[in-house]
Amino acid sequence: MTDAIRKSNKLEMGSKKRIKGLKAQGELYKCPSCAYQDGFHVSFKWSKKSSKGEIYLICPNCHSRFRLGWNISVSKITS
Ligand SMILES: [Zn+2]
User: Fold this and answer.
1) What is d(CA 70, CA 6) in angstroms, rounded to the nearest whole number?
2) pLDDT per residue as tens digits for the range 32-76
3) N or C: which end of the chain has fewer CB within 10 A?
4) What's the gap in Å between 47 CA and the centre of ligand 1?
5) Which residues pair with 46 in a beta bridge?
């Protein structure tokens, strides 16, 4: 792996930190990294090929990013 690729992987989702896995259990409102207790921001990462995406949680306080394997798909909207 080249340094350039390693760098771009690190910057996934605009963050310098790695996206951590989070277990989907109990009530989820507290950040495991900094103990902030007022919940999370939500972010989406869409597949380039399909209409599928994954939801990420972002801590508003320390900006840690978490994934829960929360996969979604969207249907086409006609306006
Ligand atoms: Zn946090």
Assistant:
1) 25
2) 999 999 999 999 999 888 889 999 999 999 999 999 999 999 888
3) C
4) 26
5) 53
CA of 59 to the centre of ligand 1 (A): 5
Distance 77 CA to ligand 1 centre (A): 35
Return d(Cα 57, Cα 60) in angstroms, integer: 9
Token pair, residue 54, equals 């994954």
* Cα 52 to ligand 1 centre (Å): 27
Distance, CA of 72 to CA of 34 (rounded, Å): 28
Give CA–CA dist 25/53, Å, rounded.
21
Distance 76 CA to ligand 1 centre (A): 35
